[in-house]
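subagent[fold] <- orchestrator: predict structure for attached chain, return tokens only, no commentary.
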Amino acid sequence: MRTAMTAAVVLLAFGGPATVPAQATTGFAAAPATSRAEAPAATPATTQVDTFLKAYRRAVLGQSGEDPRAVRERLLSSYLNLRLDAWAEQNDADPVFRAQNVPAKWSAHQIKQEAGFASVRLTETWTGGGVQEVWYTVRVADLRIVDLGDRPAF
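subagent[fold] -> orchestrator:
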């Protein structure tokens, strides 16, 4: 009974639907479909990446009252933030999503952990059906996201 209850709580916490309002006041196109991670995060590192992406997405869409930059400053290293600013300027796109809009859904999977860092592959799925991978590096000691990019850091 306790196992079933725990499973139900985990399902509701990570897999329950969260609707997205149709209107967005930012320049980003909101996904009309349900926006949530595809699968529950299985490790502290994947949970951190999922938590960041949810908060950042809500901020970009103007749904949280928080500025996207503030979300980044709260959960990413300051060095990574500087690199993301430069990437955004050079590529004319959002540096976290690596695009000019927001993903409809995503899944995060920890690929490996070594020397105090975890490598997490985030697979973004777009409303039109496109898929893109973004690799995150999370410092395990404090769960600070210290790198993200188009290829794994290690």
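orchestrator: received. Logging for downstream: Residues 110 and 120 are 4 Å apart (CA to CA). The longest helix spans residues 44-60.
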